[in-house]
Design brief:
Number of strands: 9
Strand content: over 45%
Distance between the termini: 59 Å
Strand order of the largest sheet: 1-2-3-4-5-7-8-9
Helix content: 10-25%
Largest sheet: 8 strands, antiparallel, barrel
Number of helices: 2
Mean pLDDT: 84
Oligomer: single chain
Order of helices and strands: HEEEEHEEEEE
Radius of gyration: 25 Å
């Protein structure tokens, strides 16, 4: 009789271990993924390829290479209207702190492919060489450093939406240089590999 109770307790114990092991195996970890590769388009003519590399459980380093475009329109009554465009390459390094991954996971929301809210320091460099532009505009090399707040959400296995905004600093490399405050914003739709 004592042996039957021991056998029953062993079976219950083994069943609890097996069930908890299965549940743990399917649980989503609340941390930044090791490496995320993708492409993203948005914010006028901004197309880039990117990689997010995990530095800690909540911090990733995003690096991008892409192109950005700008358009301007001006009207002067004595000269008429003018439309200008510039397309330049862009190199970006952006550390991101995903601060709400554990909270999202606790609510049963997805955190795959780094879906969450983040704070970042977006640092981008746009060189003036191989720029495409019209004769009325002159591209210049510039450096942007912008603290950003943003959100990133994934839909399905591969598609993402991202929005971010911030106020920062722009340095234009002309003559002695020109430093100005700048408002940065991004809206992007992406594909994750």
């Amino acid at each position: 009789m004592k042996q039957m109770r021991i056998m029953k307790l062993k079976r219950i114990f083994m069943t609890v271990i097996a069930v908890s092991g299965c549940l743990t195996g399917y649980a989503q970890e609340a941390r930044v993924e090791k490496s995320v590769w993708g492409v993203q388009a948005g914010s006028l003519l901004n197309i880039c390829g990117y990689n997010e590399l995990r530095l800690t459980d909540a911090v990733a380093l995003r690096s991008e290479i892409g192109i950005q475009g700008s358009f301007s329109y001006s009207y002067i009554s004595s000269f008429g209207s003018f439309t200008h465009y510039t397309i330049t390459p862009e190199l970006v390094v952006e550390p991101r702190w995903y601060y709400n991954l554990a909270k999202r996971q606790a609510k049963g929301k997805f955190t795959t492919h780094n879906s969450g809210n983040y704070l970042s320091l977006r640092t981008s460099f746009c060189p003036e060489w191989p720029a495409i532009h019209d004769s009325g505009s002159r591209p210049v090399s510039s450096l942007y450093v912008i603290p950003m707040w943003g959100i990133r959400r994934h839909y399905g296995e591969h598609f993402s939406f991202e929005a971010s905004a911030g106020i920062g600093y722009q340095h234009i490399f002309v003559g002695k240089g020109d430093d100005t405050p700048v408002i940065g914003w991004r809206l992007g739709i992406g594909y994750t590999f």
